[in-house]
Amino acid sequence: MNADTGQVYYEKKPNERYRMLSITKLLTAEVLMDALNGDLSDRISIQQSDLAPGSTAELKPGDVWSVQDLLYGMLLVSGNDASNAIARYGGSVILAMEGRGGNGTERFLQAMRDKARTLGANQTEVADPHGMSRYNVSTARDLALLGANAFRDPRLLPYWQCTQRTVQIGGPNPRAKQMKDIIEIVGEPGIVGAKTGSYFSKGLYNLIVGWRAPNGQTIVIVVLGAPTHPARYDDVRLMIDRLPSDYPEMNRPTSISDPAPPPFSAECR
């Protein structure tokens, strides 16, 4: 899908629902940026309730992390625990702005649902901020809409364009920790950003990619339910190879284009 015009180039079962898995975190990142207006400098204490199974950023109760580093922990290593901490804190900020109390995580999840509807992703359901729940479902069409927003958001662009981050963790067990991106397509030519979702025991492999076409427009590619880890990357690379020849207008200048992402850097800043 062309993020600027909405044109769909290729599609197969665009309205069939699949589990989002960790692609959920794309929406979590967007809502966090909205809630904090892009200011991620706050530092928060990690709670026992933030811990989660599956892929993690290895948070420990009592740790003190900056919200920015939690975002890196969610996007670079797909930390489910970082997602929980982000939702808890982000929701508490929303509640404070509204002048009322309540459960921060639940308020954040409602904000995620509201964001999806605002973007037209009407077949998307959210039950947690990380994608472990089987009730987190969406369609290729909906995820393309969410990706069109996330991969053009100037507040998020720097977070897609790097592969490792060293964080300084405070609290009773102060330490430095290096996190490295687990998404192999990041850093390849034209890639604006990417997020995977994997359910290894079920053989489900998802991938969403933002690709900058030669004319400067952002193209969102969504692969859901690929049978193997390599297959999802093969599908995306095949489409990137074919698009400029199947649609020659992608090679010509256009009045509708997106700002170039920052240069790729291995080290996140």
From TrEMBL:
The answer, when asked if Protease is one of the entry's keywords, is: yes
* Keywords in alphabetical order: Carboxypeptidase, Cell shape, Cell wall biogenesis/degradation, Hydrolase, Peptidoglycan synthesis, Protease, Signal
Q: EC number(s) for this protein? A: 3.4.16.4
Q: Where is this region: Disordered?
A: 249-269
Instruction: Provide the protein name.
Output: D-alanyl-D-alanine carboxypeptidase DacF
Organism for this UniProt entry: Methyloligella halotolerans
Q: Where is the Peptidase S11 D-alanyl-D-alanine carboxypeptidase A N-terminal domain?
A: 1-228
Q: Compositional bias (Pro residues) at which positions?
A: 259-269
Entry's family note: Belongs to the peptidase S11 family.
**Which InterPro entries does the record match to this protein?**
Beta-lactam/transpept-like (IPR012338), Beta-lactam_class-A (IPR000871), Peptidase_S11 (IPR018044), Peptidase_S11_N (IPR001967)
The keyword Signal belongs to this UniProt entry's keyword annotation: yes
> What are the protein's GO molecular function terms?
beta-lactamase activity; serine-type D-Ala-D-Ala carboxypeptidase activity
Q: Which GO terms describe its biological process?
A: beta-lactam antibiotic catabolic process; cell wall organization; peptidoglycan biosynthetic process; proteolysis; regulation of cell shape; response to antibiotic
- The main enzyme category here is hydrolase
Record-annotated active site:
S22, K25, S78
Pfam families, alphabetized: Peptidase_S11
- Residue sites binding substrate per the record: K195
